[in-house]
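Quick start: what a row looks like.
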Amino acid sequence: GVPRAEMQSMIKQVAFPQAQVLQVRTLPAGSPVGYNATHICKSETRVATIALGYADGYLRAFSGKGGASFAGESLPVIGRVSMDMVTLDVAAAAGLREGDWVDLEYDLQRCTAASGLSQYELLTILGFRYLHHWIS
């Protein structure tokens, strides 16, 4: 993370979290998604539940604001981020299947604005359940 604005050009993001798709379903219009039914599907919606949650450092602040991508398609978070699961609207990713991996939108500047945390904090709260791949 960038600790000071003048270091922006010298420091590049090093963490690119991914999560696996646990389930893909099509929900009818009017279906609630997430704790306290914080999202109601306005029309029939194809959704995916991914193995990720606030226990992994993916904050509840990203509920309805975060997202992921698959094959270049943007997949918005719908409903509330729970402890171990996040639900995505995957209508744009017709090829997405259970077992696939999605790339989380974890741009540190945007996540800082959404959460109020520093970039450093956003990196340090990423949980121990992530499998780490070190690239040199």
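That is the whole record. The mean pLDDT is 91. The chain is about 10% helix and 30% strand.
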